[in-house]
Amino acid sequence: MPDPNRHAFEPALRRGLYEAIFRRRDIREFVSTPVAEEVLARVLTAAHHAASVGFTQPWDFIIVRDLERRWRVREIFEAERNKNAASFSDARREKFLSLKLEGILEAPLNLIVTCTPDRFGPGVLGKSSIDEVEIYSACLAVGNLWLAARAEGLGVGWVSILRNDALREVFSIPAHVIPIAYLCIGYVKEFPERPVLETLEWAERLPPRSLLHFDSWEGDGARGDALKAAIDDSSIWNGIIATGQRRTS
Amino acid sequence: MPDPNRHAFEPALRRGLYEAIFRRRDIREFVSTPVAEEVLARVLTAAHHAASVGFTQPWDFIIVRDLERRWRVREIFEAERNKNAASFSDARREKFLSLKLEGILEAPLNLIVTCTPDRFGPGVLGKSSIDEVEIYSACLAVGNLWLAARAEGLGVGWVSILRNDALREVFSIPAHVIPIAYLCIGYVKEFPERPVLETLEWAERLPPRSLLHFDSWEGDGARGDALKAAIDDSSIWNGIIATGQRRTS
Question: Would you tell me the crossing angle of helices A133-151 and B133-151 to the nearest 10 degrees?
């Protein structure tokens, strides 16, 4: 049998993917430099090549430059931010309210990724009891978009402190279409080395070995030892990506 | 102001990312060659570095090798496949039933990605009215995993024709944890040039320009002409990726 490993990319190409993954950040500070159409076209093409259940490609992309609508989104955000703040204890609420969580008006463009379930009719290959499968596909499109943007030097921030009914109203989105991601996109002064919420000690990166289970949720016996050792071993990245570029924390 | 473009990756690194995106496939035919722990460790680390709302990292990974449990999953799949089949008209149902849609038993490993909402308590930064945000994050982890697997030469197939309550029972997953993706993973004889469902004429790749909207759902006036022209122009990939590697259809 031919070596199955022959389909692996050469190390330099794997490095490109891994750098995009490890250096991607959720961005809330933008510079106003416009995004070239050709760059945006590549990023959107990457999004459109995400996996989708039954090849349904349930996503659409609304490119938003109009400032009046962005002001309205900003207002929705402000109201929802207060609602979100109320879910925290006093000390944490104060910290929360000090954070800059969006770049709706500063970013040169905003972009909405939507999901249209049953786009080609009620029968969807891959959709039986799990009704959310097309939503999952739309999320994969967001993921591709985010990584491609990083490789193109573009920052992306996902603003989830919003209300879908309000977004439908502002952008005339039909009732059966689900807004999945409201994104701010633009160039940045810098990509922080670590996630901002980690630097600010809002939350910590979980040790990856703590997330592994073997054969069942409670199964973490000796079966997993070799994988846990490998995931903690920085030498698995030798020849692929320099340690400095790989932020495990 | 410094050139904001300075954060863009050099073309060879961008190529690595775009090749992973364009050459990724949903795989249902595997060879039995075991997956090295070091390769699996890299793929899982990539998944763990996905974006997550409020840096919650809501995912867990159940690595499944146990054959008895996989037989049970296969049985759940068979029942759900019949349910899925019933949603199609006669001709389409026949085609559907002829498709191989999973590699649960042949693949050297299966892997479940789950989502634990409110992992650190009820207050989640970024979660106000949109309750599914952590599920979206778990999907991004699946996306990273899938791309990293492709770069490592590993095929991944997402089996969505399942039932979450049944998966919870087989793998002792707690009631508050949501199974998001049931994946079959392994080396392959080949990565098809096109998505299998496209080759079999189950569905067609949508023209990307048809998915673009400008400033509102109904907005597709002249504002979008430059972007639509760019997205149709193969020269935007010059110097980044060879035409043969980029499957727009």
Answer: 60
What was the pLDDT predicted at A249?
A: 46
The residue count of chain A comes to 249
Q: For B110, left (φ over 0), alpha (ψ -120 to 50), or beta?
A: beta
Contacts of A74 by beta carbon, 8 Å cutoff, 6+ apart: A102, A104, A105
At B248, the amino acid letter reads T
Nearest to A127 among B9, B160, B216 (CB): B160
When pLDDT is cut at 50, 70 and 90, the band that residue B249 belongs to is very low
How far apart are the C-alpha atoms of A117 and A40, rounded to whole Å?
25
Q: What is the average per-residue pLDDT within B30-48?
A: 97
pTM of the model: 0.97
- pLDDT, averaged across chain B: 94
Q: Is A17 on the interface with B (CB under 8 A)?
A: yes
CA A146, A148, A150, A153 torsion-angle sign: negative
CB contact under 8 A, A217 and B177: yes
Q: Report yes or no: B58 and B142 within 8 Å, Cβ to Cβ.
A: no
pLDDT of residue A86: 95
Crossing angle of helices B11-23/A11-23, nearest 10°?
Answer: 90
Let me know the angle formed at the C-alpha of A43 by A206 and B26, rounded to the nearest 5 degrees.
Answer: 70
Q: What is the pLDDT of residue B222?
A: 73
Q: What is the DSSP letter of A2?
A: -
Is the Cβ of B64 closer than 8 Å to some Cβ of chain A? Answer: yes
Task: Give the H or E element holding residue B114.
Answer: strand B109-115
Tens of pLDDT, residue by residue over B1-37, are 668 789 999 999 999 999 999 999 999 999 999 999 9
Question: Which pair of tokens denotes residue A156?
Answer: 């992306």
Higher pLDDT, A222 or A25: A25
Unique residue bearing structure tokens 């899925």: B84
Best A1, A76, A128 member to test B by mutation, with max B CBs in 10 Å, is: A128
Which among A13, A191, A226 has CB closest to B151?
A: A13
Contacts of A95 (CB under 8 A, 6+ apart): A200, A202
Tell me the residue type at B175.
A
Per-residue pLDDT tens digits for B117-136: 999 888 999 999 999 999 99
The answer to whether B113 touches B57, Cβ cutoff 8 Å, is: no
Q: Taking the CA atoms of chain A, what radius of gyration do you get in angstroms?
A: 20
Average pLDDT of the segment spanning A213-224: 85
Q: Which of B140, B145, B144 is nearest to B35 (CA)?
A: B145
Does residue B205 sit at the A interface (CB-CB below 8 Å)?
Answer: yes
